[in-house]
Specification:
There is one protein chain. The protein is mostly beta strands. Helices cover 11% and strands 45% of the residues. It contains 1 helix and 15 strands. The strands form 2 sheets. A 6-stranded antiparallel β-barrel has the order 1-2-3-7-6-5. A 6-stranded antiparallel beta barrel has the order 10-11-12-15-14-13. The longest helix is centred in the C-terminal third of the chain and has 25 residues. The protein is elongated, with a radius of gyration of 20 Å.
């Protein structure tokens, strides 16, 4: 399931909000070998101690997000520096994201640009978002100029849990436009030429929002 060369993310199970990124180097019996991880917030290499526990995740070939629990077992220097992590086996890897991307409520800063000068660019924010598309608010001045089927260029700013901001640029197709009872116009768009690395980050962002929502619900139910 997990392949050599896959990116892998590690989230500490001690409650820390840090997130580390690494790369799969090899798979052995009950363990995996990864490159020394990098802290996504500081960009610095992280040295892990034996016994440290993490929630590991990676993106499968089907575009789904997979997760498993792991523990640091040691390190190797030959043939190259690498960290040894426990791997429970494919049977115990949890598939989080289905092929049809999960949409989450999120206010993400966005900028909409025309492809052929049909309207003035405008800034807005999303209402919800997924790795396949989003719903955005439309200024009243622009609502009459936007029609289903029109293609636009869309910029998104994703505030990741690590504290960094990830910038996504993609073309998008307007799917539908609706106006609610308060006269607020909203448009749904489908991403049409999203780069693989941008889709990975959108999947990660959506998953992080799901985790935060579950955390808030648990706190409210205490």
């Amino acid at each position: 399931m997990i392949k050599i060369g896959d990116r892998i993310w590690l989230e500490p199970l001690d409650g820390s909000t840090r997130q580390y990124q690494s790369k799969m180097l090899s798979v052995a019996d009950g363990v995996i070998h990864i490159s020394y991880p990098v802290d996504e917030q500081s960009g610095k290499t992280v040295y892990l101690l034996n016994g440290m526990q993490f929630k590991a995740s990676f993106i499968g070939r089907d575009g789904a997000l997979y997760m498993f629990d792991t523990e640091v077992k040691g390190e190797m220097r030959d043939p190259s520096p690498m960290v040894i992590l426990t791997y429970p086996g494919d049977k115990y890897v949890t598939r989080i994201q289905r092929r049809r991307y999960v949409r989450v409520k999120a206010k993400v800063d966005a900028a909409v640009h025309p492809l052929n000068g049909e309207f003035a660019p405008f800034v807005t924010m999303t209402i919800d978002i997924s790795a396949g598309g989003a719903a955005l608010l439309i200024p009243p001045t622009h609502a009459p100029l936007l029609q289903p089927g029109k293609a636009v260029e869309l910029w998104l700013v994703l505030p990741m849990r690590s504290g960094e901001y990830y910038y996504v640029k993609t073309k998008a197709k307007l799917v539908r436009i609706v106006t609610d009872e308060h006269g607020i116009a909203k448009m749904s768009v489908e991403f049409t030429d999203l780069l693989p690395q941008d889709r990975v980050q959108l999947i990660r962002y959506s998953f992080e929002q799901q985790l935060d929502e579950k955390k808030r619900e648990n706190e409210e139910n205490k």
